[in-house]
Write a structure and sequence with these properties.
With 173 residues, the protein is of the alpha+beta class. It contains 4 helices and 7 strands. β4 and β5 form a beta hairpin. The chain is globular.
């Protein structure tokens, strides 16, 4: 079999990461319309991921976050997304380079992407963290559920904090 010097797989995944970036940019500007909500799985050990030490210790290789009712200060640029979520009633800023994405799912409309090809090494830039992490961490908290409650509804039922969910039901078998 001949070598794929054009690297079609990488080009397709780069384009699909662009789709995720564009969707998140739109949500950052306009808010999250119903019935959309996102499950985002990313590699926590990827260069440029900004994560509290306690979360990195708990999820050393992979983590899934949910953007639905309560998330704050979603920011998106060309290379990264950053968002504040509550873990055990403590706001935590998470910075995720798009190159670290493994899965992006929007179960509200039965849409999902799974990334299997590692981006080229030059895309794994450790400099992406300061780009968004350096912004004001004390930004005003906005509740995307439309009320003034700063804790996710699921938190009370789960004993506090964000929940990590399995995406197996969204993956093609």
């Amino acid at each position: 079999m001949s070598k794929d010097s054009i690297q079609y797989g990488q080009l397709v995944e780069q384009a699909l990461r662009g789709v995720v970036r564009d969707v998140l940019s739109r949500v950052a500007r306009e808010g999250l319309p119903q019935p959309h909500h996102f499950y985002i799985t990313f590699r926590t050990d990827h260069p440029g991921v900004g994560l509290a030490a306690s979360l990195r210790e708990r999820y050393p290789t992979e983590m899934t976050i949910v953007l639905q009712h309560q998330y704050w200060d979603l920011q998106v640029d060309d290379e990264t997304m950053a968002v504040t979520l509550s873990f055990n009633n403590q706001p935590q800023r998470i910075v995720i380079p798009f190159a670290a994405l493994k899965v992006f799912a929007d179960p509200g409309v039965e849409f999902g992407l799974q990334f299997t090809i590692e981006p080229p090494a030059e895309e794994n830039l450790a400099e992406t963290v300061p780009l968004l992490a350096g912004r004001d961490r004390e930004a005003p908290v906005r509740d995307h559920a439309g009320d003034d409650v700063a804790e996710p509804a699921d938190e009370a039922a789960s004993g506090g904090g964000a929940q990590i969910v399995s995406l197996d039901r969204f993956r093609k078998r």
